[in-house]
Design brief:
By secondary structure, the chain is an alpha+beta fold. The protein is built from three helices and seven strands; from the N terminus they run βααββββββα. Strand 4 and strand 5 form a beta hairpin. Belongs to the AHA1 family.
Length: 134
Amino acid sequence: MITVQTSINAPIASVWEKWNSPEAIMQWNQASPDWHCPTAEVDLRVGGKYKSTMAAKDGSMQFDFEGTYTKVIPNELIEHTMADGRKVRVQFEKAGESTRIIEEFEPETSHPVDMQRDGWQAILDNFKKHVEAL
């Protein structure tokens, strides 16, 4: 498992809502400014599906992320299985006035572990910036 995490200066309910809102996901789900997220779908319930696309703004490449939710505890925990079978766990913890997110995921085999960790951390950092800017 690879772990990335951050603390966000916002209440847990607000962080949860921004994490799971398709409109918000399209605003923050990218690792760098030359990428964007043109589509996002969320059916946040056990057995529900999610899908988002992260694409280079120049159209040169894109990645589709999709899967099925396996556990949902509002404002606390989301577990899901990606379409390729990898498991992901996202914890939301109240930390005073802030919210801590701890995201764990199984690595894929096509890219180095450090590259995957850095990419997921960059997306999480972008999420933090998005929430704190509101």
